[in-house]
Amino acid sequence: xxxxxxxxxxxxxxxxxxxxxxxxxxxxxxxxxxxxxxxxxxxxxxxxxxxxxxxxxxxxxxxxxxxxxxxxxxxxxxxxxxxxxxxxxxxxxxxxxxxxxxxxxxxxxxxxxxxxxxxxxxxxxxxxxxxxxxxxxxxxxxxxxxxx
Amino acid sequence: xxxxxxxxxxxxxxxxxxxxxxxxxxxxxxxxxxxxxxxxxxxxxxxxxxxxxxxxxxxxxxxxxxxxxxxxxxxxxxxxxxxxxxxxxxxxxxxxxxxxxxxxxxxxxxxxxxxxxxxxxxxxxxxxxxxxxxxxxxxxxxxxxxxxxxxxxxxxxxxxxxxxxxxxxxxxxxxxxxxxxxxxxxxxxxxxxxxxxxxxxxxxxxxxxxxxxxxxxxxxxxxxxxxxxxxxxxxxxxxxxxxxxxxxxxxxxxxxxxxxxxxxxxxxxxxxxxxxxxxxxxxxxxxxxxxxxxxxxxxxxxxxxxxxxxxxxxxxxxxxxxxxxxxxxxxxxxxxxxxxxxxxxxxxxxxxxxxxxxxxxxxxxxxxxxxxxxxxxxxxxxxxxxxxxxxxxxxxxxxxxxxxxxxxxxxxxxxxxxxxxxxxxxxxxxxxxxxxxxxxxxxxxxxxxxxxxxxxxxxxxxxxxxxxxxxxxxxxxxxxxxxxxxxxxxxxxxxxxxxxxxxxxxxxxxxxxxxxxxxxxxxxxxxxxxxxxxxxxxxxxxxxxxxxxxxxxxxxxxxxxxxxxxxxxxxxxxxxxxxxxxxxxxxxxxxxxxxxxxxxxxxxxxxxxxxxxxxxxxxxxxxxxxxxxxxxxxxxxxxxxxxxxxxxxxxxxxxxxxxxxxxxxxxxxxxxxxxxxxxxxxxxxxxxxxxxxxxxxxxxxx
Lengths: 148, 702
Hints:
The complex is a heterodimer. Chain A is an alpha/beta fold. Helix content of chain A is 21%, strand content 31%. Chain B has four domains: 1-188, no CATH class; 192-442, no CATH class; 443-562, no CATH class; 565-674. Chain B has helices at residues 7-35, 38-68, 74-79, 86-91, 97-121, 126-153, 170-176, 195-210, 212-224, 230-260, 271-296, 300-323, 337-360, 376-408, 416-436, 447-476, 489-521, 525-535, 537-561, 673-690, and strands at 412-413, 564-570, 575-578, 581-595, 600-613, 618-621, 624-628, 634-638, 640-642, 647-656, 662-670. Chains A and B meet through α1, β1, β2, β5 and α3 of A and α3, α14, β1, α15 and β4 of B.
């Protein structure tokens, strides 16, 4: 009984903090298709999709995101954040931000691309050129831009 | 490969044989317990040992396959290549899903073997003889589960031809690999080609695997109704070893993220990170509550609960990581069949544990009750409750997207600030209990004695915490406001203060006890101190761990609250400034050069930045971006970190544009190295506490 009161206080604290944290801080996770419903316009969401075309990869980055299931559904995105290492077309991406209902542009403040997995093998059928697959060295198709 | 004998086929055979032997071992325990024949126990022991040998041999053969370049095997093809250095080829064993499960099973084999040796040596102990078959039963079931997955669900020995990419279509395979010869693999992702890849995952896996031993003993104690301290004394060192590796795995994971990912941080509350953290809380709680059972004969059911929960959480982490049930920045396997296997195993384990605990709880009465809140055992209990509360919070928040989808019909994402809001109050409480605990004695401490032990450290901590905060404010670049208890500074000061208090309470306790001893025994102070530390290595090793925790806490608080970040766009010859550093872009080096020995050519773009500090010190930094053609021209950033005693200068080359502008992110991370230094304290203290030194403890319960 001596520790019942502290135990009860800890339990009450835990439930209250989780409740407050979720109510104040949890945000909806939506696909690109979900944005079309209009229900999330002006609300902060975590938008999940696939990078389609990159307009600029310098901060603020501009690109088009497409739905994972329906590639026809797309939205323009502008993100003011660091460029992640794996920022290229056909990469799964999550952007935290708000859809501006007037411009139709999703304005993001944070971008996450998926880390290279230890648990997802690459498909031999989707890897670069045949030369690369068979182990030959190939020059990069898109070398870094010469600043000069 | 057309060899008549293929050692990788043999390796798969060993896995299947190991599974069959594990099943026989389980049956031997069940039959032996029914007929009460000791010979069945010996058979079970041999079965566990044989299964372990077979699994370890299989993992070694797969590693040989990596070194040997057997790229016709799908798993080796996907996680290795010719040009990789030997260390990364070996790391391929745990680099992917299938191999990591075999690696896990092999590590279980190692701890199972050591456990069987322990039983063989202590055959005369009647408690050990009662519990032994049930420990083997648990090992047998766990080994059988893993070997079944390796044998039938995630086979790391599968031929590339039979992998989902080709599904046995020989024409397609020959079109891709003329002559059917797979000369090279696709290689590890460049971001994983880092030396921490060789260290971090094995540490974490080993920590989790070692938790199987306390779990096995707890289940055995529950089945046999063993109420004494035998099983607790057997698991203490195992739990400590698991905890040490778990701690190391977590910290090294953070260090890896810090030096590689370019965001200047080390912890993001990602589900994968959380998964590694969850068993850490319950194992830490167990390490404390073991002492209460040893000394006071209390918390018997609770200890069984913690030992089983720690194991369950380590399996939960594996399930979370491999099932894709919750989205993460880490690309989990999604929709893997293995996720369902782990879920079933998890649910079966939880149901069994709850049933056994409910069955035995009425008989596991405590020998004593807590007599006062001002006692060490009461502090241990509260500490346990806080640790479990933190674990529960993290678990609920991690699973919230899934829970909200089921209950509310909408995926809700929980971001890092929510985790911080929810857990920081509990962390403050935890640090406070850690600070107060050593000042209290067992059973009851008078308020006067408690105050005497605490007042001096409390007073001494105040100026030190203020100085740390003042210094961090200075590095942060703002006006120093150490006494401004504004919304930002107040919680920071509280965290710093309780962290410093932990160190001072420990210091005061050590000095006071050594001084008392010197006075009583007539020894010199230094001799008394050394004797004290040697004779009570468990206690003082534990205190050293507390100091490590305090050091880490100070590092986390300062590096997160006082971090400075600035983004710049600059051209050659331009200078930028962050705090006391002035950086000038003096050169841009661009070249294509071979990576490792062969094959992995990358294009490289490095910046040469001349740095001058206000104190007149000069040095150069070279952040880079590399492009890997073999991985679809994946660009990887090489962060440059200039380490210092008080802060790190962290330089991240973001990108460049066609006009020649270079985009840089610069960070100043004050006292971040205390995070890594605190880990060294913790490990040193933990190892010291685990050493078989000192006198045999006689519990007050006895």
